[in-house]
């Protein structure tokens, strides 16, 4: 079975309502191109580094304007709309970096909270402590859709291959990785990581990204990607600005890739042996 997937690239600012307008315009563009599954990037609703500014725009799920707009839009356009993520007030003092999948009837099929927090100090002086604001999720989510078995991750999750492997062995064929990768880490690792996850699991990877210079001062890498199970890039956006990329996803390609390289079947349990220590003379 084949379906057309779209990845929406955005440069979200600090105003959720402006970002929703952009999202809606780009999703409509994807629908006109025949997409039946459309993914938006991480933090579609807003990119806001300032904690006070973030608190001002936060809403709980029932009142969140991004959630409401996605529900309405998916039903109107009769497509599966995947909001890569948006910031949601959990009601307990913490924030969820939460993704959503809506059906063509506007039903919320699932939500997924980003599991791995981006707590790093980069070589260019950037410092990120997502765990200071966001509460990590602890559940892997998958969905059996009419056209594919789909799995979910968000941005930094891509650096944890076990998350992808656990979903692959349950039959997941298409992995989603909406992101807001920094420019520095994106230049070094974005393509390599996403292609590796596709190849090692024999699955499609769809990654809608944030791109360019944002109102809050950060800079994201862009290059939204759709990758096939053999690691081939089927569609790619540029480094900056808005874009809609589409590709036809043939789930038979997953079975073919897994037959050609049956590493999921060939995996074996093993134990980590005791480390050998040797304090001999140094070579000259």
Quaternary structure annotation: single chain
Helix/strand order: EHEHHEEEEEEEHEHEEEEEEHH
CA-based gyration radius: 19 Å
Helical amount among residues, as a percent range?
25-40%
List the helices and strands and how they pair.
Elements: E1 2-9, H1 16-32, E2 37-39, H2 51-57, H3 65-77, E3 80-89, E4 95-102, E5 108-113, E6 119-121, E7 127-129, E8 142-145, E9 148-152, H4 161-168, E10 174-176, H5 183-201, E11 204-207, E12 211-213, E13 219-221, E14 225-227, E15 233-236, E16 243-250, H6 252-260, H7 263-266
Parallel strand pairs: 1-2, 2-3, 9-10, 10-11
Antiparallel strand pairs: 1-16, 3-4, 4-5, 6-7, 8-9, 11-14, 12-13, 14-15
Brief characterization of the structure:
The chain is 27% helix and 27% strand.
Describe the structure.
The protein is an alpha/beta fold. It has a single domain (2-266), classed as 4-Layer Sandwich (Nitrilase/N-carbamoyl-D-aminoacid amidohydrolase). The protein has 7 helices and 16 strands. It has helices spanning 16-32, 51-57, 65-77, 161-168, 183-201, 252-260, 263-266; strands at residues 2-9, 37-39, 80-89, 95-102, 108-113, 119-121, 127-129, 142-145, 148-152, 174-176, 204-207, 211-213, 219-221, 225-227, 233-236, 243-250. The strands form 4 sheets. Strands 5-4-3-2-1-16 form a 6-stranded mixed beta sheet. The chain is globular and about 65 Å long. The termini are far apart. The mean pLDDT is 93.
């Amino acid at each position: 079975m084949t379906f057309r997937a779209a990845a929406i690239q955005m440069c979200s600012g600090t105003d959720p309502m402006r970002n929703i307008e952009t999202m809606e315009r780009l999703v409509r563009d994807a629908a006109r191109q025949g997409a039946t599954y459309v993914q938006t990037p991480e933090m579609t609703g807003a990119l806001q580094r300032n904690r006070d500014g973030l608190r001002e725009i936060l809403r709980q799920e029932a009142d969140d304007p991004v959630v409401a707009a996605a529900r309405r839009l998916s039903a109107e356009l009769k497509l599966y709309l995947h909001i890569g993520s948006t910031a949601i007030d959990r009601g307990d003092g913490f924030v969820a970096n939460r993704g959503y999948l809506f059906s063509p009837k506007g039903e919320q099929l699932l939500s997924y909270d980003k599991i791995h927090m981006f707590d790093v100090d980069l070589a260019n002086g950037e410092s990120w402590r997502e765990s200071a604001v966001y509460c990590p999720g602890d559940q892997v989510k998958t969905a059996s859709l009419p056209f594919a078995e789909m799995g979910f991750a968000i941005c930094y999750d891509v650096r944890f291959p076990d998350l992808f492997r656990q979903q692959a062995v349950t039959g997941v064929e298409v992995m989603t990785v909406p992101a807001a990768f920094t420019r520095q880490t994106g230049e070094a690792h974005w393509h390599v990581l996403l292609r590796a996850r596709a190849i090692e699991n024999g699955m499609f990877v769809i990654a809608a990204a944030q791109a360019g210079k944002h109102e809050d001062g950060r800079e994201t890498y862009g290059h939204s990607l759709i990758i096939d199970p053999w690691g081939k890039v089927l569609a790619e956006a540029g480094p900056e600005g808005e874009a809609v990329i589409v590709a036809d996803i043939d789930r038979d390609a997953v079975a073919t890739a897994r037959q050609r390289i049956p590493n999921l079947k060939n995996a074996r349990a093993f134990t980590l042996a005791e480390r050998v220590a040797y304090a001999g003379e140094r070579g000259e």
